[in-house]
Design a protein that fits this description.
6-stranded mixed β-sheet, binds flavin-adenine dinucleotide, 3 domains, globular, 5-stranded antiparallel β-sheet, 14 helices, about 475 residues, alpha+beta, FAD/NAD(P)-binding domain
Amino acid sequence: MVSGPSVVVIGGGWAGLTAAVAAARAGWRVTLLEASRHWGGRARRQFLSDSRGERLALDNGQHILIGAYGATLGLLEQLGVPWQRQLQRLPLALPRPDGSGLVPPGWAAHLPAPLTLVATLLTARGWGVRERAAALSRAARWMAQGFACRPQATVADLARGLPARVVADLIEPLAVAALNTPLHMACGATFLRVLRDALRAPAPAGLSPSDLLLPRNDLGALLPDAATAWLQAQGAALRLGLRAVALARCGAHWRIQLDDGAALYTDAIVLATPALQAARLASTWAEDPACPATQADALRAWAACASALAHIPIATVYARAARGWRWRWPLPLLALPCDPERAPAQFVFHRCGGNEENGALLAAVVSSPAPQWNGRRAGLAAAVTQQLAAALACPGVQVLATVVERRATFACTPGLQRPPAWLADGLLAAGDYVQGPYPATLEGAVRSGLAAADILRRLPWPQPTVQHSATDGQRHR
Ligand SMILES: Cc1cc2nc3c(=O)[nH]c(=O)nc-3n(C[C@H](O)[C@H](O)[C@H](O)COP(=O)(O)OP(=O)(O)OC[C@H]3O[C@@H](n4cnc5c(N)ncnc54)[C@H](O)[C@@H]3O)c2cc1C
């Protein structure tokens, strides 16, 4: 039976799940609160039905991991998730539907990641000598500079002078996939850091850091199911559908006011909500007359930094191809020729799952949709359908759902100020937006959860104290 100090993790996305698991492993008694009815946050299972009544376990958006996501893969390993089976391993490739684009040749499959990249650039279909030479010399320059650049450089600055085809086939899809931020706004230093890790970071045996890892099942089956089952087995309290609305210091403890009128008392809190909600929660204590002035100032500064982050949407159009149409490309993803106004999807994925006899399942991703699509889900889906019909020779596509995540990721811009993990004694933050080397990604979220638990581990060990208020005792026993 765990008898350590108590921590309440507020938010059950990948950062909160990670913080909860890591804190429980360190001996903390964990309560995990999630405001919605599902675990996983922005990377969660979502059920959809097609017109034939088939129920499909899909996601709130197509996700992709890479071999360099060491913290995420390590966590899955610890939880006993058979990730080698659950993730489909692909080489780093950006193929186009017409056969052009970037695909490493078969003979390069077992080379170290930097040499595979060289082979890919040398053999890119549709590129001439000028494109190959320019791409290779730019990659060599970035490597020689240790993948560092001016802090204020954008990805567009890094790509200046490269042939348009190299930007369209290589730089743009990589920046969209990694940073979800348009090139002219995207942070060059973060882009190079992700590229460096994809080429040089250690990867688990049998993987290259640059490998793309596509979930074979829904995202719930990857981390949230395993993490919540593990936490339950450790005696952690898991609360779905409960929202934290205010924080206050109460003697030696923290008090968390919940939206059902109850309250929780705990030694420590990890705020693992998105940035804006974390800022609001931190402000409730900062504006409490009982909050000491210096702490209130620090919390206000933290909240201002978190609320200043801009966010970028991602839309995913799930669709069924007509019966009889077959996906004919060797890899299950394609980079699409796109135009924000008429052909807005940058990628299309051939999704596993579902009965292929009912038609191949497709997920088309629109990163940062143009403003004209705001509030026009049906129009966006129609444009993507037409785009797929033209690019894949795939007429008669039936749209299953268009999922728009308005605040999918923070805009990863140069010189961005991100708030730190530490807010006050026993009050920490975890989330993809918290200071760290990664853009808004699963790996960034997992790393932040581990970092918060690491800070908890270094706190002086308080007496075990979780108590429930009278209402809480009645409502949450
Ligand atoms: C469509 C889409 C595609 C993406 N593609 C990729 C990809 O390919 N690769 C990649 O690595 N990353 C991708 N990302 C980014 C990745 O999903 C996020 O970086 C990551 O999931 C963020 O996790 P988090 O735990 O920090 O935040 P969240 O997932 O937002 O979790 C926060 C949780 O807090 C809960 N909450 C909020 N307020 C309260 C409250 N007051 N009380 C209790 N609970 C509360 C929320 O309901 C939520 O569940 C994508 C994101 C989206 C949306």
